[in-house]
Amino acid sequence: MPFSPDGGYRAPIDRSSPTWGGRPDQPMSRANSPPPPSLIDSSRALNQKAREMGRQGITQPQSLVRSESHDRVFAHADWKIVSADQGNGGLRNAAVAAARDGKLEEYTWIGTLGMPTDALQGTQQLQDIEDRLATEHDMLTVFCSDKDFDGHYSHFCKQILWPVFHYQIPDNPKSKAYEDHSWKYYVNVNQAFADKIVKNWKKGDTVWIHDYHLLLVPGMIRKKIPEAKIGFFLHVAFPSSEVFRCLAVRKQLLEGMLGANLIGFQIREYARHFLQTCSRILSVEATPDGLQLEDRFVDVIHLPIGIDPVSLSRHREESEVKHWLDIMRERYAGKKLIVARDKLDHVRGVRQKLLSYEMFLNMNPEWRDKVVLIQVALSTSEKSELDATVSDIVTRVNSTWANLAYQPVVYLKQDIDYAQYLALVSIADALMITSQREGMNLTSHEYLFCQDGKFSEKKHGSLILSEFTGTSSLFSGNELSVNPWDYRACADAIKKALEMDGEEKERRWKKLYEAVNVHTGSHWFSEFMLRLDKVYEEQHSRDQTAVPRLSMTTLLQQYQRTERRLFILDFEGTLVSWGPVNQIIPVSPQRTLDVLNDLLLDERNTIYVMSGRRPEELDRIFRRVPNLGLIAESGCYLKDCGSNTWTEMADSNKIRSWKSSLQDIMTYYLERTPGAAIEERRCSLVFHYKSADDYQTAATQASDLASHINDACEEQRVHAIPMDGCVLVEPIDWTKSTAAQRIFADLQKRMGPDEKHKSPVDFLMVIGDGRDDEKVFKWANQMAMEGTVQEVVTVSLGNRNTEAKATMTQGVSGVLAALQKLSQVVVPAEHQRRRSSISLPPSSNM
């Protein structure tokens, strides 16, 4: 991992990417870069042409050949630990800042050395390096072969994941995306990291994994250490599901990420894309808070990273920075400066920026000779045609308008040192960022912080920022937002930035500066750790193995010392062992009806049964249980105890509206899924595909349907939930939980507090087995925490994680037995309800 001996990071956050294994003071890589040249069809023709040229006396440049003497030199050479060129500077600064602010105590970096190590295998030096990093710097080293690292980083990460995550599908003829060869190297490196973590993990440790290079590590650790506390943060953008699904290994990557307890993204858009992608590809239920897996819940948040203002302030005061400020004041006296610093790749939009600047000079001749664009272009590990294209544009602009005293574009195809960088962003009149897609651009944060005027007479410079950067979502429109592909709009933004009056510049800058100081690196680091601790505790408390079994002894005691009791009981899977609500009711659940009738003999008991079935179905089933309350269609209809009429909880106009808009969508998928069917209920729609001709294809169509509805109908307050063999589409605003709250509110009106009772309910019992019962459990537990209800019992029959405070493993028979025991408690005469007798005609078929 990156390391700086003085604990700081004296460099711009976004560093260039030096060629791995290409430094003269480090060993060369032994990797035969995958895939080998023999796999390329054209290689034979090239070799034949080379031999022909050799016969003609034309010599070819020789590739760098490793010699044994080269390896021997490094096997015995002196070495020292220095600050790494590679690595995530924003992460490093955030960790250092959090430690400095007392928000982080002991922590250990785990990473590779950042250089080829095959030449050092079997030497004492390699062991010495590992030991010193561990003992003196709290760093654990992951060793992997040069071949694995090169295939992982140079190929799978940079040629497949990086383009896809930035909306550039590597399908052009010149792409080197050999995913079928480099994937195994990606797996190998991820496994090496996971093995190192598992080997050194101790109970109570927190594991925080970062970025797209290690997407598989959370899942690998989870398999070995199920109880581990794991966080994952993706620093780059996460694309829409339409783009991500193009990856051949999409499922493996998503499942690897879902090994974490908490997954973090820079902004809400990326988190939403991730949730939609998981829902579509893995057919899991996505909620606003995260993803409900079969056996656990994974929380998903968005939390933007920031800079370290304290460290930046300290470095700005250095004499070297002031020296460069003086040089630049003299060099560019009387000129407006637009500055930019980007990696020279297609994602950063350097070409678009230069073309926009060229158009600006064409459209605004009065600004020629008065404005200079300083573009620092950082090298990347790969060479491309973009390099030549950018150079051609720079040459064209300069040859058109330059003279002996003026050069419109200063193009530095190299990085600059930190002092020059700080001087540049301090004296600039505007910073221009035209990234086509970027997770979080921290250069803009550093620029805004340096525009306070403390070290330069220039201050409150404008920020021209691409709308496709994560940073743009933080600044609330106070930046000059641009679409990098709209050259005219970019040219107009340049003009506006240069001609903006001082009052507006200051107003915009103050708001931007405030945002930068709120979203700091230290805040990001500590906030993520706090959230991880919180969700881990919540998830652990909901784990089925951590929830105790229901104690009948305790339950009887709670029951006997209370007098205003409310039971809310799920129907399918809880009171009866029937299957889904789309199945025909087989027989009358006589034992269930008898138990409910026995409980209702005590007038102090109020019972509601909740179900996803239609009102008329529940009426037919429970005709012989008077004084029973019913909740139909998962909370859309409510029938009070003793009443003969149903109350429609949902807004019928809204229901009709969203059903109408969804009809075309669901019909589209129905036509493409032979054997599927659509069931229309009063307040919901169900897409059934269990009987489809081709189940696998139908499951894919169902996932696409759920994703489509959740993407397109969010504003209509409906959501699609993938279930076993069907997709349920129901309103968000009316659930079993809202029905339970309505019941409690009605009881409050009818049964106010008196001398003996402070609340209309002093005993609340909720029993359920499904995912839709969890919200009722959560509401009931909240009533207990707030002290509104004296005794609260929540019981889950499922074998998954739950909000319930108790579980029951005996299923339906266990529930009926428990309720039967409660009904056998002696009821005082004054509280006995007379049993009603109902005679049914002989032909009645229940």
UniProtKB/TrEMBL annotation:
MF terms (GO), sorted A to Z: alpha,alpha-trehalose-phosphate synthase (UDP-forming) activity; enzyme regulator activity; trehalose-phosphatase activity
UniProt GO cellular component terms: alpha,alpha-trehalose-phosphate synthase complex (UDP-forming); cytosol
SUPFAM superfamilies the record matches: HAD-like, UDP-Glycosyltransferase/glycogen phosphorylase
Protein's recorded name: Glycosyltransferase family 20-domain-containing protein
Localization: Cytoplasm
Keyword flag Phosphoprotein: yes
Main location: cytoplasm
GO biological process, one term: trehalose biosynthetic process
